Amino acid sequence: MSAIGMLFDVIGGLGAAGGAVILLNQAYATVTTRPAPGTIVNWVEEKDGEIVRFRAQLAYTTPDGHSYTSASASRQFDSDRSAKPAGTAVTVRYNKAVPDLVTIEESFNSRWGVALTGVVIGAAALALGTLMH
What is the pTM of this model? Predict the structure, then answer.
């Protein structure tokens, strides 16, 4: 059994496992939330030590006609805030059981890309490690 093969096995296992965990988390978020049209009302600055991030204040209407204004559950960096200034129309994802739990919809690459990349690279490293034994 070669040391390089074992290294690829470890790297592959970690990559595939990490990607799978992220995939499951994203799948759960997709199943438990619903999309709705919304607007960024404003951005609220939050400091976490030296790190400055921003939380969007979102206004949105659910398909059943209820309107909500709530702070996003996720924080963004300044580049996100610059790309989507106040007044920008966005798609939000909200939890139907807790409508104030809302986030801005992520792109396909943001939501699934990292996880799928981890799984693919992990599986390839596992396969390579197996071939090196």
Answer: 0.67
Which letter does DSSP use for residue 51 in this model? E
User: CA–CA distance from 5 to each of 15, 111, 130, 131 (Å)?
Assistant: 15, 31, 7, 8
Distance of CA 64 to the CA centre of its chain: 26
Angle (deg, nearest 10), helices 114-131 and 3-32: 150
Residues 40, 103 contacting (CB under 8 angstroms): no
Structural contact between residues 13 and 128, judged by C-beta atoms closer than 8 angstroms = no
Strand pairing report for 102-104 and 89-95: antiparallel
Residue range 104-133, pLDDT digits in tens: 887 677 667 777 887 788 888 877 777 776
47, 23, 24, 39: which is closest to 102 by C-alpha? 39
Per residue in 49-98, pLDDT (tens digit) is 888 888 899 999 999 999 999 999 887 776 777 788 999 999 999 998 88
